[in-house]
Structures are given as C-alpha cells and as structure tokens.
C-alpha cells in the first residue's frame, strides 16, 4: 500500500493547520481508499533547531530526536504538506524539519495545501524550491485555502472553523490523485530497480 504523510507545517499555538490536515485526511480516505494517509504533526516531534554535527546528506544522525524523525519520514512514499504563509514563506519549524534529514526525503512525491490571506501561494513556491534540492518531485495541483473565504472566523485571535468552498474539494481530489500516482511511479527508483 502506498503510504502518504500529511505534514502539519506549523507548530504555533492556535494554528489552523491541524484542522486542515484532518480535512485532507478525511477526503483522502474517501477518494483514495487504496492508499494509506497519516497525519505527521511537527508539534509531536519537538525538534530543536538543527543540532546535528554532520550534514544531513551524510546520514550520520547522532541525536535521538533526529533518528526518530528520520525513521518517521523514511516510512512514507509521498507527502501532502499543509502550510501557512509566514512573511511570504514557510514557517521556520517546517524549514528546520526539512533540513534535519536528507535521504529520507529523496525520490518521493509531494503536494501542497496552503492556507492564509492569499492561500499561502508564496510559501508553496518556496517549499517547492526547498523540496527540489531534497529530490522530491512536486505535483502541479495544489490547494490554496483563503482565510477570508474558506474559514469562518469570529475573532482575529481564534483559529475559526474550516469551511472550504466546493471548488476546494475538486482541487484537493486532483492533488491527492497526483501525489498517489507519482508516489507509485517513483517506487522503482526508491527501491533501486534499474530502468
């Protein structure tokens, strides 16, 4: 079974990312029943700022938190990144988590569900560049959730309820289809099967 990790890219208290990831998981279970989807919440890993003495590309991980993170990421064939946009880019916690390991990301597929004032489109652009360096194939389809249109917010300090418009469902379905297909297509490369 193809395993896809849904990565919650923010660790901020009061974040909207967990609710978005749960929506993605719910739709994925319905639309892609032959694949397994699991939420990977960065807040559950408590990664400090990158503290490994060796470059991640060396694979010489010495810290328990790095080994735990590497094992988690290695277990997936692809990813859906759920990210807000912080100052026109991705959250520092997400960039830090990406930087901790290297080979565990390689030759996998990824899609993006962004949320923010403008759907986190600039954050997703940055994330695509970072993932390219990690040898992750990113799909074109993406979801851009607007805080104005896809959330019901009663107060600025409250996360609000996720209420995605109908067009977001078709965008998410296309993204999930692409991530699963690309993850399966890249399996021979991950397994070292010659072309």
UniProtKB/TrEMBL annotation:
<dbReference type="InterPro" id="IPR029039">
    <property type="entry name" value="Flavoprotein-like_sf"/>
</dbReference>
<feature type="domain" description="NADPH-dependent FMN reductase-like">
    <location>
        <begin position="2"/>
        <end position="148"/>
    </location>
</feature>
<dbReference type="Pfam" id="PF03358">
    <property type="entry name" value="FMN_red"/>
</dbReference>
<dbReference type="GO" id="GO:0005829">
    <property type="term" value="C:cytosol"/>
</dbReference>
<dbReference type="InterPro" id="IPR005025">
    <property type="entry name" value="FMN_Rdtase-like_dom"/>
</dbReference>
<dbReference type="GO" id="GO:0016491">
    <property type="term" value="F:oxidoreductase activity"/>
</dbReference>
<dbReference type="GO" id="GO:0010181">
    <property type="term" value="F:FMN binding"/>
</dbReference>
<dbReference type="InterPro" id="IPR050712">
    <property type="entry name" value="NAD(P)H-dep_reductase"/>
</dbReference>
<protein>
    <submittedName>
        <fullName>FMN reductase</fullName>
    </submittedName>
</protein>
């Amino acid at each position: 079974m193809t395993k896809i990790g849904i990565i919650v890219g923010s660790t901020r208290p009061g974040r909207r990312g967990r609710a978005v990831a749960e929506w993605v998981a719910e739709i994925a279970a319905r639309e892609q029943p032959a694949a397994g989807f699991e939420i990977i919440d960065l807040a559950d890993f408590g990664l400090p700022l990158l503290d490994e003495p060796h470059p991640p590309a060396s694979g010489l991980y010495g810290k328990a938190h790095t080994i735990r993170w590497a094992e988690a990421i290695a277990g997936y064939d692809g990813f859906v990144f759920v990210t807000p946009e912080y100052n026109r880019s991705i959250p520092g916690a997400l960039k830090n988590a990406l930087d901790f390991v290297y080979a565990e990301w390689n030759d996998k597929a990824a899609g993006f569900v962004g949320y923010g004032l403008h759907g986190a489109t600039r954050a997703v652009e940055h994330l695509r560049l970072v993932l390219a360096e990690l040898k992750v194939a990113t799909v074109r389809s993406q979801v851009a959730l607007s805080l104005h249109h896809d959330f019901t917010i009663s107060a600025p300090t409250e996360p609000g309820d996720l209420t995605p418009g109908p067009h977001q469902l078709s965008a998410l379905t296309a993204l999930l289809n692409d991530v699963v297909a690309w993850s399966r297509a890249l399996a021979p490369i991950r397994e070292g099967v010659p072309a």
